[in-house]
Specification:
single chain, about 350 residues, mainly alpha, 14 helices
């Protein structure tokens, strides 16, 4: 335990004042971005009309209905999805010691997308709670097959094998999903969902997903210290008495909960879980007790800004979130891959 404390102390850690400032500024920016998300969109309206819908709602006015039933739930969905993706990315990177870990690269999103395709094809008209459960199962299947495939080697699982296995599972599930969408004529519905958009988020959907988001986030916060120790290496973690299998199982559960919530709300969006944790690691150091809560705050901010850009760049049409994150995420992925190239040698 003394060695672990020395290892943690040797790594850069923010002071309490600095970390509190980072969180405070992040929360303030989230509030500003949320206000902009409510105020601006495809439908043009002045600010007084937009905010009167929040504080003095009149159901006879179309503008008020747009704010109350479209922009407001959409803004909350942005925060939930962004926080979920960023936190699950931080957990995956910490527990697997893989800087390239992301739900979009580990087959998790692809598993949920395939499960959604199967649900649309064989269970049309299913309730939202059923689709949520289906996404949880699909995400678990994708993650399980990725880890199993990466482990099928005499040398065991390594970060590079994990990435390659995740990409292989993603391609396989994508091909099966395409086959199903063609044969059951669900291509339009599936394409809209997989392109990534929170435009259709409703209060009822948020009420169903919010409890799972809170559970997943609380579990992630509770695991933060254990993930920091596990990130030092399994031998060290076991040496200080950590039950690494339990920590990994609980980490996987948190990832599946957060992935299921985000995928059912917005579709299989990638790169948020890759980008935000790296940015937070740069800002607050390598201790996951700081990275995870900071990722939760700035992940929501990242998603709000991206969605707002997608709405305003080509009004009244919208640009799908998947396109925006791909434009930003692919160069970032290549940059991280280049920086971590020694791990692949």
């Amino acid at each position: 335990m003394v060695y672990v404390k020395e290892q943690l102390a040797s790594k850069s850690q923010p002071t309490n004042t600095y970390f509190a400032t980072i969180i405070f500024v992040g929360c303030l920016l989230v509030l500003l971005a949320a206000a902009a998300s409510i105020s601006f969109g495809a439908a043009r309206m002045n600010l007084s009309t937009a905010w009167s819908a929040v504080f003095s709602f009149d159901q006879k006015l179309t503008e008020h209905q747009i704010i109350r039933f479209l922009r407001f739930p959409r803004t909350i969905a942005d925060i939930i999805v962004g926080s979920s993706l960023a936190v699950l990315g931080a957990i995956m990177q910490g527990s697997t010691r893989n800087p390239l870990a992301d739900s979009g690269l580990m087959g998790i999103n692809a598993g949920a997308a395939l499960a959604m395709a199967i649900a649309l094809a064989f269970m049309p008209g299913s309730q939202y709670s059923v689709l949520l459960l289906v996404c949880f199962i699909g995400a678990g299947l994708g993650a399980g097959l990725t880890y199993l495939t990466a482990s099928l080697s005499r040398k065991g699982m390594s970060p590079q094998r994990l990435v390659l296995a995740g990409m292989s599972i993603t391609l396989l599930f994508g091909a099966i999903g395409t086959f199903i969408s063609i044969n059951f004529n669900i291509g339009q519905a599936l394409s809209y969902w997989t392109s990534g958009s929170v435009a259709g988020a409703t209060w009822a959907e948020l009420a169903l997903t919010a409890p799972w988001f809170v559970i997943g986030l609380a579990l992630s916060m509770g695991l933060a210290r254990s993930i920091t120790i596990l990130n030092l290496g399994e031998e060290i973690a076991r040496g200080v008495g950590q039950r690494t299998i339990v920590v990994k199982l609980l980490s996987s559960l948190a990832v599946l909960l957060l992935a299921g919530v985000s995928v059912v709300l917005v579709g299989p969006v990638g790169f948020v879980g890759l980008i935000v944790p790296h940015m937070m690691r740069f800002m607050v150091g390598v201790d996951y007790r700081y990275i995870i809560p900071a990722s939760a705050v700035y992940g929501g901010l990242f998603m709000l800004i991206a969605d707002l850009i997608g709405r305003l760049v080509n009004r009244p049409n919208e640009m799908a979130l998947g396109i925006i994150f791909a434009i930003v995420g692919v160069p970032f992925f290549l940059l991280i891959s280049r920086r971590e190239r020694r791990a692949f040698e």
